[in-house]
Structure prediction request, 422 residues.
Amino acid sequence: MTDPWVALEPGADPAERVRVLRRAHDAFTKAGTVPRPVRSVVADSWRRSARAGVGPDGTASVELTDGDLGTYRAEHPLARVMPLFRELMGTFAADGEHLLAVCDAHGRLLWVEGHPATRRQAERMNFVPGARWAETSVGTNAPGTAVALDRPVQVFAAEHFIRRVQPWTCAAAPVHDPRTGRVLGAVDITGGNGLAHPHSLAFVQAVARAAESHLALLAPDRRETDPPQLTVLGRDEAYLAAGGRRIRLSRRHSEILVLLTRHPEGLTGDELLCAVYEDESVTPVTLRAELARLRGVLGPGLVASRPYRLSVPVESDIAVVERRLAAGAVTAAVTAYTGPPLPASQAPAVVRLRNRLADGLRAALIAGRDPDLLADWAHAPWGEDDLDIWRALASARPTAAARARLAALETELAAPASWTRH
Prediction:
């Protein structure tokens, strides 16, 4: 296999590969082993699916219908490029008896269009608008795995984790916000085994890039007078959009800038030193050198001294989530929360901020008991092991998958106590 992201190498017999994959899938569901020739991307996805409590005989759940679906789609950024998707892929889907599908960043299908007979067949497995096709909900599938991995992927036949999806083949590519780089969702082509070709993967990738270019043209121009914007959530290295530039910061510089946005009044050198460095032996000279490098990256004028502070207000995505949460707009807060701030940072003040933000969101979700919001958190990487959230979800929406995942977490939690007895 020359490209591990393409399902079939040139000259491969699709029918024979299907038979081999079905045997491999049976072996994995029975014994947890993945024999060759299963691609590594598929094997890893099967393991993630099993850890998430997905069963091979499960099905997708429909989470948005009617007015709720219409409102959500209308407000989603990818609605602006749906005419482009239809122009580039609509005829191909209809003529080839395929489906054009678009999902959000949580793997929830927003649009499913294409050949009428193929749509009717897809409806039998809930491949419909409003259904959650995240990898953590229905296992390996192109749109769900593409947003999980943030890269284009092709899934062929019995590579799908759920058996009822195995007659299908699909290829999907993530679509990013051209300004922030965040995943907005994915565009997918779904149909028969004829799609197991390098061209279908290249096709959806090209369509995704065209959509990103179109979104960049539709975005309002950011003048040099616009306030700087700091993007931190879900990133180990923050981005600062300022003065018409988009600057990627190192982890240490990200930590410093995050903390300065939290303290417009400024921080003394000792305060910033204690906030940033876990190691108490680090000297003020190290901090001053780091700040000098940061000024070199940002340019003069943004970071002032005595005390260390920002010379102009800087808006951050953390503050957006906090304001929405404080206003009781839990849905809007969860939508804006794209991951923990600087998740790998061990800076003491960043760790406290990260925990406080997550605790506030979790408390609001558990109190609100909205199954869709709970599912969004539980199926995100930061929520997949969150026992309290899974308990709330299993209570609010007691599906077999939710109960299975909760039971697995409770078993894992109890396991260390049993080990200590041996």
